[in-house]
Structure formats: structure tokens, C-alpha cells
Amino acid sequence: MADDTTPQDGPAEKAAPSDARADRKAARLERRLAQQMRDFAKSHGGSAEGQLAHIARGTARIALVGANGEWGNLVAPSMDIARKAAEKAGLTLHDDFDGELAAKVRTGPYEWSRMAGIQIGGPANPADN
Length: 129
Prior knowledge:
Elements: H1 17-43, E1 48-54, E2 60-66, E3 71-76, H2 79-89, E4 92-94, H3 100-104, H4 109-114, H5 116-119
Parallel strand pairs: 1-4
Antiparallel strand pairs: 1-2, 2-3
Helix pairs in contact: 1-2
Region (Disordered): 1-27
């Protein structure tokens, strides 16, 4: 006779209270970030695209580019929360912030005044098209 030590189907283990609390906090952060992304898109031409990047210690930067070329950043406590929030917001995500996405960014006078190019005789701020 074989010794059957396989556990019988019983009541499922309940998640620890701290795990449930962490899950609720993550869900709140996702909703808040998703709302901020939707608000950004709405106020910058009706849509936005983005790119996620690891910053440090698990945090993530969400670079946003609106349909009108305006850009901004959000920070999330993890890549997972950032990705889920972007999905909830309907944000189109790019793998890199170069090429197609970078070409959509329009900078204003402030950014141009802060760039080294103007300090070494580079071109002035181009006229908006």
C-alpha cells in the first residue's frame, strides 16, 4: 500500500491581511495613475502615447506625449503598476523613447532656454508648425 500524502481539497487559504492591504493600495495607485493619464490625454489633444522606463529601486517613469506634442512624466512605485495603469488608461505604449515617439515631442521656450545648444550658439526655438 502506498502512502498518499497529497493534501485533500479543503478550504482555500486566505491571503494575509497585509497582502490584501497591499493589493488594495496597488489598485488605488493604478486607478489614480490611469486617471492622470486620461486627464493628460484629454487636455493635450485628446490622446496620448507613452513609454515606461525603470528608474531605480523598482520605480518606473511613465513618459507621456500628447497628440499636440506636449509631454510630461509620471512616476509609479513599480513597473507592474505603471503598465496596468497605462492599460486602464488606453495608453499606446512604445518600447523606446526614440524614433516615432520622440519625433512627436514639441518643446517650448522653457526647454530651449535650458538646452546647451542655445548656450553655445545653437539654433533658436523653431517656429511651431
